[in-house]
Specification:
Mean pLDDT: 82
Number of helices: 5
Number of domains: 1
Order of helices and strands: HHHEHHE
Length: about 90
């Protein structure tokens, strides 16, 4: 399970709940957790905030590092395996 999906699941929120509380659409949040794309970092950070993470600073730092690793892997700038932010099938949009 991806970090994003785990955070959402632990909070007991649906993608519709996120859309009602946040700035993006249900589809945007669903794509962010799907593993098929690399979401915008701002979207990842918003999901953490909306899910009411108790240790937001640590979770935000972890999410940012996973996002950076995934971006580097997609760009081929580092020889890193894709992290489990979403999945190894990510493509950048």
């Amino acid at each position: 399970m991806s970090f994003i999906r785990a955070v959402k699941s632990e909070a007991g929120l649906t993608y519709e709940d996120l859309a009602l509380l946040g700035k993006a659409s249900r589809a945007t949040y669903q794509r962010a957790a799907s593993g098929r794309i690399l979401p915008r970092l701002e979207t990842v950070q918003e999901i953490l905030t909306l899910c009411g993470r108790k240790n937001l600073d640590a979770d935000s730092e972890r999410a940012t590092q996973l996002w950076r690793n995934a971006r580097c892997a997609l760009r081929g700038t580092q020889n890193l395996p894709c992290p489990v932010l979403s999945s190894s099938r990510m493509k950048q949009t």
